[in-house]
Amino acid sequence: MRVVGTRPELAAARASSSGTVAVVMTMGALHEGHAALLRTARAEADTVLLTIFVNPLQFGPNEDFDRYPRTMDADLALARSIGVDVAFTPPREVMYPHGEPVVRVNPGPAGELYEGASRPGFFHGVLTVVNKLFQLTRPDVAYFGEKDYQQLGLIRAMARDFDLPIDVRGVPTVREADGLALSSRNRYLAPAERSAALTLSRALRAGASAAAEGADAVAAGLAVFAETPEVKLDYLVLTDPLLGPAPAHGPARLLTAAWVGATRLIDNVEVQLP
Ligand code: PAF
């Protein structure tokens, strides 16, 4: 595996890549969810590029940019074990050589809902860096986790609306045996918070089973949140698979975000309405 940190090194590595080129973009602190993205890419593409960059643009002023976990050695070891070809680990000045970008990708109205409502500017920051990394890595295919479901949808919309010749593929969320969705932020949780954090996946499961029987998914999920008042719910919404208004029948998506102590977690599941 080649580890590169500059634009010329990346360009050289990209120029010598053959066949279908896949990219997996991350902020490091890799876990089994990222490993699933990388393994899928490894199985489906000829060349696998991994990017590791904690993007300051997508953190609000009171968010966890400074304390976001940085585990580069372990990340590179995991990537090597999966057979990644190139890891791009740029420092901030390589990604933003002219300082903070003045022009940013506008995520549109869907970027102002849910995560965008609670984290103003978040999706502008995400789409701007993803767009830059698309330009720098020029992949044929890109893999993103369904765990960040709204992010996945907006990246797909950006690829479509900006005519990017990139196939954006979603990979299902990886969960612990007890249901907790894997997240780099789980490592912030103290043991009692780790138990409380199960409220999110339990609420989603309850909502999905209620919905399958024709009952109100959100009401069923809210009843689970009500049992754990120390978990502060941000939102629990039922939408269509593209995050539009909830349909009357067929496939839908149930999404949630909540605070467990100082840690904000998100999760979502597919729902089938009868
Ligand atoms: O999902 C993430 O880790 C980040 O939002 C991404 C896509 C790598 C952009 O910084």
Keywords:
9 strands; nucleotide-binding; 274 residues; 22% strand; binds pantoate; single chain; 3-stranded antiparallel sheet; alpha/beta; 37% helix
Overview of this structure, please?
With 274 residues, the protein is of the alpha/beta class. It is 37% helix and 22% strand. The protein is built from ten helices and nine strands. The strands form two sheets. Strands 1-4-3-2-5-6 form a six-stranded parallel sheet, with helices on both faces. Helix 7 (149-161) links the parallel strand 5 and strand 6 (167-171). Helix 6 crosses helix 7 (149-161) and helix 9 (198-212) packs antiparallel against helix 10 (217-226). The protein binds pantoate (PAF).
Radius of gyration computed on alpha carbons? 19 Å
Strand content: 15-25%
SS-derived structural category: alpha/beta
Helix content: 25-40%
N-end to C-end Cα span? 48 Å
Total strand count, please? 9
Main beta sheet: strand number and arrangement? Answer: 6 strands, parallel
Named once each, the bound ligands are:
pantoate
Individual helix count: 10
Overall pLDDT score: 98
SSE string, helix = H, strand = E?
A: EHEHEHEHHHEHEHHHEEE
Q: Looking across the biggest beta sheet, what order are the strands in?
A: 1-4-3-2-5-6
Question: Any idea what the shape is?
Answer: globular
Uncertain residue segments:
none
